[in-house]
Specification:
By secondary structure, this protein is an all-alpha fold. The chain has eleven helices and no strands. Keywords: Cell membrane, Membrane, Transmembrane, Transmembrane helix.
């Protein structure tokens, strides 16, 4: 009992993350983005976490939200399982490599990497909205996946390095390259992100890289937001969700690059 009271005393200052997590998860799981693209900047700038802690806490948070959303998409029968499981298997080795690299690479370099990555995601999203080329396919032959089988692996490395990459590479691959129906592409992306998240979170727990005083609120919040995501996806135009996400990540990514480029240059003096 005393341990619980002590934990609550240290964690209660992070209670504001509960409603934040609900909103982030509802938008993320409704649009196909990974929540880490928003959670990591919040953890770094608002809660002053280290990058490994931010990645670990972001991933365990995403895991709850994505798992919750997976249940919603299973009920809607929107998931392309034949595409999801091969992509999970291709992503896992990349995540393991990325998590190891995140332990040894300078934090300023990781922050610039994250910033450039999310700015690129925002730019890609804007281009896709301008072109407005949406597919309507349902289903994919395994043979069609071979030429781009390296994409989930690279996305996994990026996800391990920054908590961003798996969803942000899988979703464009399904929507833009394979021309899968956008709602089915989002649902399938959520499944891949969720299953890969179980592996990544197991490693982060083992390495002690999760801030549980924060995660207790974000995990609870995204469980609720994850159930709202499929509903948001069904009633809100995907383009609206993409604009909201893109503007936020472009601004935060640009700030992260701007703040840390001088630190990287200082390493060479």
């Amino acid at each position: 009992m005393e341990y619980i009271l002590d934990f609550w005393a240290s964690a209660s200052g992070n209670l504001f993350m509960f409603p934040v997590a609900i909103c982030v998860a509802a938008l993320a799981t409704g649009s196909g983005f990974g929540g880490g693209i928003i959670f990591l900047p919040i953890f770094v700038y608002v809660l002053d976490m280290t990058i490994p802690q931010s990645i670990g806490t972001s991933m365990v948070t995403e895991l709850c939200g994505m798992t919750s959303a997976m249940i919603g998409y299973v009920r809607q029968r929107q998931i392309e399982y034949g595409m999801a499981f091969p992509m999970v298997l291709l992503s896992i080795p990349g995540v393991v490599i990325g998590l190891h690299l995140a332990m040894v690479i300078n934090e300023a370099i990781l922050k610039v990497f994250f910033g450039l990555l999310v700015v690129g995601c925002a730019a890609w999203t804007f281009v896709s909205m301008i072109e407005r080329k949406y597919g309507d396919r349902e289903g994919l032959n395994v043979e069609e996946m071979y030429p781009f089988s390296w994409v989930p692996f690279i996305g996994g490395i990026s996800s391990g390095l920054s908590s961003v990459g798996t969803a942000e590479t899988i979703f464009p691959l399904l929507e833009r390259i394979y021309k899968i129906n956008v709602h089915r592409a989002i649902a399938t992306t959520i499944v891949v992100e969720g299953l890969v998240g179980w592996v990544a979170t197991s490693i982060n727990i083992w390495e002690g890289q999760i801030r549980w005083d924060v995660a207790v609120f974000t995990m609870t919040g995204v469980l609720i937001g994850g159930q709202l995501g499929p509903i948001v996806n069904r009633i809100t135009p995907v383009s609206v969700l993409k604009v909201i996400f893109s503007v936020f990540v472009f601004l935060t990514g640009s700030k992260m690059v701007y703040d840390n480029i001088p630190k990287i240059l200082g390493l060479f003096k």
